[in-house]
Write the structure tokens for this entry.
Amino acid sequence: MQDSVERFTKAVQDYVKYRPSYPKEILDVLVSECGLTKDKIIADIGSGTGLLAKLFLEYGNTVYGIEPNQEMREAAEEYLREYPNFYTLNGVAEETKLESSSVDLVAAGTSFHWFDAEKAKVEFKRILRAPGWVLLVWNVRDIENSDLLRDYEELILKYGTDYCKSNASKFDKTVQETFFSPNEMKTRSFKNSQLLDWYGLKGRLLSTSYSLRSGDEKYDEMLKKLRHIFNKYQKNGVIDFLYQTKLYYGLMSVSH
């Protein structure tokens, strides 16, 4: 677990600058289907630099960001300093340090694949109050609709230190079969994108936990290949980095 926490430390500043935000359509789904209102209290698990938390804070919710990495927590506190209803805790999905029956919605943005799903489920049921909604979100690179992202995928498969273990798109089955069972899990998907210049694309790669770092033997070779990809697809100095924002949401069986 410690490795999965500390591996993001060197990527924090690039994460802040170059990771995509989450589309506001997420709120529309939660309002219409999950009864979200401005007075609901949100637990954002694996809150990182605060990208998902900001969506709820702008809506008016109180958000508790649960994040074990100190540098990530500090970045989130700076990023969201204008929101007095944002609080950070040094905790993990399996032990959030929140009180029992203290939150109305548990959310996790691009972080669930780091959790011990079975233990996290027990903890979520403890901290939730009825009815007990859980939302899991990923910004998944849209490889099917982008030649650029297919080339980018080949690059990170070649140079990523342990990319295959980190690939969130492979966690669909785990979510469907174990986490929400026996309750129904609903899914939605929205288009999302970033317009990135060369420095943005470089920063987007370096924001990942599996990227090589300066000083690694093949770091310069990796960036040379990335620059080739950028030059191949750029128009007027920018590329369109496409995502599908995938939502998985449903009820936990809250007994208290």
In short: The domain at 2-251 is CATH 3.40.50.150 (Rossmann fold). The chain has eleven helices and seven strands.
